[in-house]
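Progress note, project year one: complex with adenine.
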Amino acid sequence: MTTTNTPVDTRGPIDDTVRAAIRSMPKAELHLHIEGTLEPELALRLARRNGVTLPWNDLSTLRQQYDFSNLQSFLDLYYQLMAVLKTADDFRDLMLDYLAHAAADGVRHAEIFFDPQVHMGNGIALDTVMDGLLEGLRIGRERYGITGGLIVCIVRDMPVESAQALIEQIAPRVHDLIGIGLDSAEVGYPPSLFTEVFAKARAMGLHAVAHAGEEGPADYVIQALDLLHVERIDHGCHAADDDALVARLCAARIPLTMCPLSNLRLKVVADLHDLPIRRYLDAGATITINSDDPAYFGGYIADNYQALYDTGYSLQDLASWARTSLSASFIDDARRQSMLEEFEAWQRRHCEL
Ligand code: ADE
Ligand code: ZN
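Model obtained:
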């Protein structure tokens, strides 16, 4: 990945006014795995409640597992802890805990990934998972005014037949979904494997997104665009290795849903300055900032915004990403308009900063 010229930060420590402004900025979260919001405390509580035996019984031993060397080392823990989620109430509670964090961070709309193939592998019915998550979203909308929806993710390192079976299983509930995504271990599992799966899902009316260029090469981003016909790229860090691809992403206004703390914790980059964000901004790319798996990576969405502020980006840069996240959401025009109005009101209140 090409390193970039981020501004040198001479502003000193962030003050409370800026911190509060970042948190209250109306924003959408477009790259969030609900299973990645499972905090270790909740994982242990659910393990006890559901009689699931984990290799770690206490918080301090469990917390020692969160030092990741790459994507796979994180996925190993992430999939193991998912075994504690058993009932619709567990999924509802997980969603509500996330939405409480999201509300405190100024999230007005959230498009949320989930991994049904893994839950079904744990013996949980698709309906149990979806009913719980949708109930959480419904309560969260009443409680916090946050709109949202579910994006069903294909686990790309499971057999392609399993993905094909999932598409058949979701068909009766397609009205409860907004999109299809592609996640999990990337290298060795190119988007081309899932061309037919995505074609079927799109024919059902689902929006299409895919993780690409997180650890995998720029070519996977190209495949996601050409073969899966995605409307957004999740991560897209390695797109920066291909100038023509960056130009294409800009021209086609394909949003990249970036997740800085995730990329740092999974060692996609050694330092946040190494992310190609400034390069993308200078080129005119459409980017949004998200939290990916906040319970694992040390921060929810506002922490990700703040980490970039601390790296030297301005409050105006952050505000432009928040505005972009509202524009890049899969929502109807009326909801988009009302969120953009909220955003303009925030901007008027904070124009002196
Ligand atoms: N599943 C959950 N988090 C992920 C990530 N960062 N990349 C790929 N798959 C994931
Ligand atoms: Zn992700």
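The radius of gyration is 19 Å.
The first helix runs from residue 16 to 24.
No further modelling is planned for this target in the current period.
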